């Protein structure tokens, strides 16, 4: 989970990284029936449509109800451009950090300062993969994978993801997480990727479950948000 002081691709997912299409995504010229939402996400000479992932997670329990990832009420998905973060992203990122929906899902404080974000970007080193998602050149979200510093825990990475409140439920979180898991599996050889999430953050829990994360435990009243204590869940994805 996104913390206040510091600054995690299953088969079937293939993001566009730094403008290069690396997987089974299709670019089409928009047909007259193309929805307004898809039409605004243009790339080069075409529009990008995201294929639904082949891998589907099994049912997971949420708030006493069984949820299956095959019954998503959010069918329209788009594919952002993903690239490494730059120092010049600090202002855009800070604006996202200060959005109420973002703050509600993370451990961030109100009124975060651009200078704090600048410092965090400058401080991040080779233990960190930190990317942003762009649509039409606008930063609409970010995600980081931070590898543990201790040699005996260097097989572990922690994931943080968050989006602009206006761009949730469009598949951007899935694209960011898929790219970070590709780095974890195929470039850093991580065995364990972990995160914490509010127990009532349904979109986030669905996202992580559909990418192979499982709930490992519950931290009762561990997060303070909007004047109340909330439970947090530990989730992890293992590759031993
Ligand atoms: C959590 C977050 C990263 C998810 O990214 P997203 O782009 O909105 O999610 P996606 O569109 O990729 O969808 C992911 C899954 O959640 C489901 N989902 C999306 N929005 C949902 C909603 N409002 N309610 C329930 N489920 C939802 C999707 O159907 C999808 O499930 P599926 O893979 O089984 O089809 C994003 O909502 C966000 O940034 N929220 C604010 C900050 C935050 O909570 N960060 C997480 C900290 S742990």
Summarize the structure.
Helices cover 22% and strands 33% of the residues.
Essential attributes:
Aminopeptidase; three-stranded antiparallel β-sheet; alpha+beta; binds coenzyme A; 240 residues; single chain; nine-stranded mixed β-sheet
CATH class: Alpha Beta
Domains (count): 1
Strand order of the largest sheet: 2-1-8-9-10-11-12-14-13
Order of helices and strands: EEEHEEEEEHHHEEEHEHEE
Shape descriptor reads globular
Structural class by SSE content: alpha+beta
Strand content: 25-35%
- The name of the CATH superfamily reads Gcn5-related N-acetyltransferase (GNAT)
Describe the sheet with the most strands. Answer: 9 strands, mixed
- Given as residue ranges, the uncertain stretches (5+ residues, pLDDT < 50) are 5-72
CA gyration radius, whole angstroms: 17 Å
Distance between the termini: 23 Å
CATH level 3 topology: Aminopeptidase
The ligands found in this model are: coenzyme A
